[in-house]
């Protein structure tokens, strides 16, 4: 095994975290693009969702993460018992998440499924890879919302993406596998088509979250409009 060396230094993120809802047990937030979910080992990567929220909500912990470039909904546990209860919902796949994304090019089909196992490859860090032998099962569904031209001349498709599993970089690598990478995705080809080079961010937003409140038992349906 080759050692993984993470040289990434996050540029400063001046966008505040939007708190959408809170009670004594959990906090629902809208994460800005360009903010780490968790602080990195490098002291220059201290700023993160967790680092900011723990100032206001001591003892809070992350139940799940969003990639640095992804914006949108996150649920934060305010204590360990709530974290355990929510983690159980995630591991049992009873939490459903819907993302909005802009994909490069115009998709031929209006909906479909991407079923492709994903593996870690230390030699390619931070990239993941599709591998039928060592990959873990991964499945995503997509539905086309609209096809249009971004900034006048770049063909893009707005889609709703529903990951049925929760692998690292799943939606990004699955869209690349589909032949239509997420616009602005630096790791998986979303800055390669003509006219996409200066896309300011990863065009991926966690726009809907469904789970059950671990204390009240109420179904929680949270939505956040896409900023792009």
Automatic annotation (TrEMBL):
Span of domain Pseudouridine synthase RsuA/RluA-like: 25-177
List keywords of the entry alphabetically.
Isomerase
Q: Which domain of life does the protein's organism represent? A: Bacteria
State its Enzyme Commission number(s). 5.4.99.-
Top-level EC class, please? isomerase
Name recorded for this polypeptide: RluA family pseudouridine synthase
The GO terms describing molecular function are: isomerase activity
